[in-house]
Amino acid sequence: MTDAAPSKLQGNTIAKRGFGHVETWVFDLDNTLYPAECDLFAQIDHRMGSFIAETLGLSLDDAHALRKQYYFEHGTTLAGLIRLHGVKPHDFLDYVHDIDLAVVDPSPELGAAIEALPGRKLVFTNGCRKHAERVTTKLGVRDLFEDIFDIHALEYVNPKPSREAFERFVATHGVESSRAAIFDDLPHNLETAHAIGMTTIWIDCRAMGRPEHVAHEDWAELPEHIHHRTEALTPFVAAIGASLAEHAAGRKDPAGETPGGERNTQ
After folding, report:
1. Which of 13, 38, 61, 122 is the most exposed place for a label (fewest CB within 10 A)?
2. Which pTM value belongs to this model?
3. Strands (E), the chain
């Protein structure tokens, strides 16, 4: 952890837990694999509101209020719509993810960083596979991932951060949670990941001002369930890969703290 308030930190905060033990690298999709500055959720939020308004006969303002309520009460807006209104998940997901990806740029740097990580790579998202495939293809990283575990695999109503979601994920893909690291922009998802033994990396998106991110702006220090924090995925992942490569080549003690040796703020 760090003694400084996270909101004042710059760059990466690296706690004393390395990556030498990691065999499986797990990435959330939205606001994690692509920068939060792309703000795809502005499009997704708009389409969710429109879907709810049309389906339930509400005003757009009331639909957006209900969307937020269901997100916080059920984990995803969709889970609430299924439980309380019998909405067909494919109808909802196909509609809300029909968005323009022009704001997402290909990232060969991210691809190189992910490719350099030794071991398996998986995407674990509360979104749908089609959306994840479109985004990862646009980024140029789709072929680097063994598989995508999505909301369809979770049967829609038990998404992250539920323990059931994580247990289903690790069972489906044969992941040993104590030898896995997960990257996610939502700290409550990382709380469950930590509880089952994963190494956690928080992609800190608070600067974007979205409610699910600014809820943590008053933290005086990082909680125990967050082992690492960064505001920029690509350089962080690149630093992990470089450090592990040096360990493999015998130029660093494999037991050393990774990356950078010790707790570090860059």
Report:
1. 61
2. 0.85
3. 13-14, 24-27, 120-124, 147-149, 180-184, 199-203, 228-230, 264-265
